[in-house]
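FAQ: What does the model actually see?

It sees only this:
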Amino acid sequence: MFSTKKLAAAALFPLLYLMLCAGLAALAAYPMFILSGADDISFFRSLVSRGGQAFLILGLYPLSRWLRLSGADLGFQWTFPRQLLLGFGLGVLMLGLHTLALLALDIRAPNPEGLPGGGQLLSILAKALGIGLAVALLEETVFRGVLFAAARRLSGYGAAIAISAFYYAILHFLRSRWTGDPATVGWDTGFRIAADGFAHLAAMTPDSFLALFLAGMFLACVRVALPRGLGYCVGLHAGWVFVIKTAKSLTHAVPEAQSSFLVGSYDGFIGYLSSAWIAVLIVMLLIALQPLATRRRNSEC
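And it is asked to produce this:
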């Protein structure tokens, strides 16, 4: 049965968790900064940012235990490696075709110096792969794993899809540019930096936010379709990041292009164009999920 209180809890709990992780990172950053002997405020910002990510990861296990979420609830299965490989291939195909469209529309263009040599190209690919896997494993475990499972338990599949996608999108805009005199750094500096990061959410661009929100919805729909298929989500996400990181090294943006409005300022790849085709994929997935939803409702009656 629908419960407004449970929906509110599902919607606000992730925010409280993010704020707690940010607060702990802000608190820990000051002594680390003093012990390091650094005199660059950007290093302090990095401590708060990386610290927040570290607390986010470290808190997942106790959070899962507290919520009594099993590996199956989080979407893990022994076929995870095979799922990851298949998802990665599909992710590369999806963003690969998108990158080709950007090249065809002159939104991006190959670098004038051409392709780098074999060793350099291999290094670019390896770095992109490493970043893609690390980012995807972290973010998918958080958003399509713990957060999705908790929201689904409290308020159902529809809310879990929207809530996990919303927080996935806004997390990409939590960036602080706070600066100050390193000589005046104190216990409150980390909290000022964390607060500045949250304040920058107001500057989110609608095109990039929409693209990230719909990407999160698509991955959540995959999670609904394949309850124990978190590996597919990780693979898809890793494939997307791999293509973007690789293409950024091999191509450059063309701001003066007539169709440049189709990509946002977040990374020069996603925007209204990616939102359009991923929205079509979401509709197709939701249509395919209708029989599954009907069976679930009938089983609960």
